[in-house]
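Appendix B. Raw example, untouched.
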Amino acid sequence: MLRFELYKLVTLRSTWVGATLALALSGVLALLLTKVVGGQTDAVSGPVELVQLILRASLPVPVTVAVLAITVVRSELRDGMLRLGLLGFPVRPRVLASKAGAVVVLAVVLGSATACVALITVSFWGSLGAVPASGWLVAIGVQVLVTLGWGLAGLVVGVLVPHLGGGVAALLLVPYAVEPVVAGLLTGQPLVAGLLPFRSLTSAYDALGQSLAAGGSHGWSGLLPFTVLLAVAGAFAVHRFRGLDA
């Protein structure tokens, strides 16, 4: 079943177009960010600063994976392909789990690829010199986690929101429009503002990347708000997927 979902994913033109554009944009952003901070003394002097730069440059890929996850679910419902799939695999939770597995594979592949593209850009075409060896694995690992979180969130949104455009809009508006406004209103309450899911996700990955790059292991607890919300929303998504009219 997982192989079937992966086959459908890799044969979509939108997968290749989106991945190519996102990787190219990440490389350009990495180069631009490198040039911007390259004139600052010790701006990227170690793996901590490197992870921060890679995460900022690689933002297009997590968003792309999330949008692709939404597209896969909604397009199957729109075209009636889900009905055909259920004829061969009638257990709906298993079908949804296979889709989640395909998203995980896509997130790992593209997350690793975009981190490598950004790292190579910084190493050879940037103005910062060679990338520290200790930063490679940390930057790749943290970027994979970022992409994975966004991808699974996209899959859940694709099941819960009944329209493709509405799902994509919701996924983009919440982290980039709604949460910044709410955080601004909660300026005097940083603890509450830190519970905003995507805001906490970004902060946690930033802190986790810094900790791992510096040789520590702190920062995992910051993933809790996003993880709890994703688990709760995922449970609702499973329930809704059971009752979807394929």
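End of appendix B.
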